[in-house]
Amino acid sequence: MDLLLGIILLLTTVVVANVIHLIYPKIPLSIYQIIAGVLLASLPTTATNFTLHPEIFMMVVIAPLMFNDGQNQSFFSLSRNIRPILSIAVTLSLITVIIAGTVLHLTMPKTFSFALAFMLAAIITPTDAVAVKSITTSMSVPENVNGALEYESLFNDASGIVLLDLALAAYRSGDFSIGHGLWIFVYVFFGGIIFGAILGILLINLRVRLMRSHVDIGSIVIPINVMTPIVVYWLAEELHFSGILAVVAAGVVHSILYDRMRLTSTKVQMATTTTWTIISDALNGLVFVLLGVLLPQVLRSTSLSNLGRLFGISLLLYLIMTFLRYCWVRFKLVNIGSASDQLNRDSILMALGGIHGTITLSLAFSLPVMINHHTFAFRNSMILIAAIVILISLLVGAVAYPLILPAKSQCFTPEEFRQQLITTVQFAINQLRTQAEDSRERAIVIDQLSTQMNQYHQFNQQRFNQLMNRAHKVEMQTLDQLTADGTISEREASLYAHFVSRSICRTPEHNFTEFARLFWHRIKWQLFRKRHLNPHRLNTVDNPADEDDRKLQIIKQQRQAILKILAIVNENVDKYLQSIENTTNANEVVMVGRVFFQQKQLFTRGQDLDADLITNLSIEAFQWEHSFVQEHLAAGKLSQELANALNEQISTDELVYSQSLD
């Protein structure tokens, strides 16, 4: 029970941290998550006393993250940049571990043996492109630097993991052979890549066969995709290959599937992307929250003097890695496509981009608790050093990047996008009103289209109440006019007044004047009803069956009478709403129209709808929206970026609607 409660608390903490970052995004998300983890650890519950099992942690947390990174990459881009990737992700990682480990050993030989120093250096070598993006969201990062950082973080994670395994093996045995270590590195590294690629191809063929024979089976294909990294990692580790590299290779093979064939249906593609986004965000956040939870435990077991010493070690390691990264690019040991006049700037950006995050923490957590049947005494200290290195890299990046990079220029603001989308939807709705015949199907499509505006418009309750009262005023004026010119009888007016008064009294807020007006109408129509209604018309009937038939006939007549008045009232209210509608009150106007539409729906239930007509009108409306955007783009009223964003939103809405037809 404590385990289940602990998982729920961790996920809840991740969500809370994400919400706070959404409100105030100037601080990196990982910092929020670490702080949230520290606060979670202070709760008076034993559910947060976590014991991490390294093997399970690597398989359940690291493997899915690495697989998702792999399948999000373009195989064409990877193959075109293979040399820079190998240089910065493999060679630089190996050089960094050797130099950092050697300096650490020579500086403190009594504390750090070569194996232990290399182990720590391997842990802090992997970088995190997600952490870099969280800092540079509002900044314009050069494309060549951004691409190099992404490719590096994809493969240097695997390099760090392989090197950590070698260092752990040397630490356990107390002996290390360069020749044997090199052979193990090649076997584990390339064996993992080959095995993962083969297994990925087999799983893809399985998915292809399933899709060909059963057309659309997202409930099977998506679980297979989600379980792939766990299965691939477990099998690779059983064969003593690098499970992480196998997972990355399988992910890259899956990216080929998406790039070339697009075999799965649109629904499956969207569901898969959404599922992996949720999984990736949750696992990334989970690692940082876990760090925050475990930090108090680690700090309590560390003396103040030792804490200062560990901070000094962390700072030394960070400076060594940053300096090596700068030199690697500055002296062209890797070609990232920098212009000669921008080489120094790009070198600094690459050096600062060595921000550490999820993988570094995960590797630290994956350290075994017991080695050779003895407690691994350095485990807590190495976790703390890794955490400090992460914090230093995050803080330095958060301070330095804004000083170097210009702010990202936005071609349109969220407000401009909102107004243009509302204008576009209004155009499609007006086209439906003028070009399609009045019908229940048209009203349903208009109501569906109006929901496109809801998520981009903050609902104003006061404005809605004002519009609702004005609409009811139009309704009463229409009823008076229909009664005065004899279009409807006094009894029909009385029936409708009874219906309207009950509907409006259900409204959360209405002013006294409106209520008094309705009350007066009610009294007036009641007087007319008593004056003109024949009191002998409803005499009892001997036959009960005839009595039931008579009551049903009266109810049917009443329904038809109200429906006839509703059609005229809704038309007048709709004209009034169209006359006052603008981008400011669009959402409230839609909500008022929906109230009157739903009133009419109450009296038309049970009547058949033409589903084909609804579908055709909806498709036509989306086409009008696209045409409106294209016309305004051609006329120079919209920028290309804003037009692309609008078309993307319209296409997404159309896709969601199409899926709802299944």
From TrEMBL:
<feature type="transmembrane region" description="Helical">
    <location>
        <begin position="383"/>
        <end position="404"/>
    </location>
</feature>
<feature type="transmembrane region" description="Helical">
    <location>
        <begin position="348"/>
        <end position="371"/>
    </location>
</feature>
<feature type="transmembrane region" description="Helical">
    <location>
        <begin position="270"/>
        <end position="295"/>
    </location>
</feature>
<feature type="transmembrane region" description="Helical">
    <location>
        <begin position="112"/>
        <end position="132"/>
    </location>
</feature>
<dbReference type="InterPro" id="IPR006153">
    <property type="entry name" value="Cation/H_exchanger_TM"/>
</dbReference>
<feature type="transmembrane region" description="Helical">
    <location>
        <begin position="27"/>
        <end position="52"/>
    </location>
</feature>
<feature type="transmembrane region" description="Helical">
    <location>
        <begin position="217"/>
        <end position="235"/>
    </location>
</feature>
<keyword id="KW-1133">Transmembrane helix</keyword>
<feature type="transmembrane region" description="Helical">
    <location>
        <begin position="85"/>
        <end position="106"/>
    </location>
</feature>
<keyword id="KW-0406">Ion transport</keyword>
<protein>
    <submittedName>
        <fullName>Sodium:proton antiporter</fullName>
    </submittedName>
</protein>
<dbReference type="Pfam" id="PF00999">
    <property type="entry name" value="Na_H_Exchanger"/>
</dbReference>
<keyword id="KW-0472">Membrane</keyword>
<feature type="transmembrane region" description="Helical">
    <location>
        <begin position="241"/>
        <end position="258"/>
    </location>
</feature>
<dbReference type="InterPro" id="IPR018422">
    <property type="entry name" value="Cation/H_exchanger_CPA1"/>
</dbReference>
<keyword id="KW-0813">Transport</keyword>
<keyword id="KW-0739">Sodium transport</keyword>
<feature type="transmembrane region" description="Helical">
    <location>
        <begin position="307"/>
        <end position="328"/>
    </location>
</feature>
<keyword id="KW-0812">Transmembrane</keyword>
<feature type="transmembrane region" description="Helical">
    <location>
        <begin position="183"/>
        <end position="205"/>
    </location>
</feature>
<feature type="domain" description="Cation/H+ exchanger transmembrane">
    <location>
        <begin position="13"/>
        <end position="398"/>
    </location>
</feature>
<keyword id="KW-1003">Cell membrane</keyword>
<keyword id="KW-0915">Sodium</keyword>
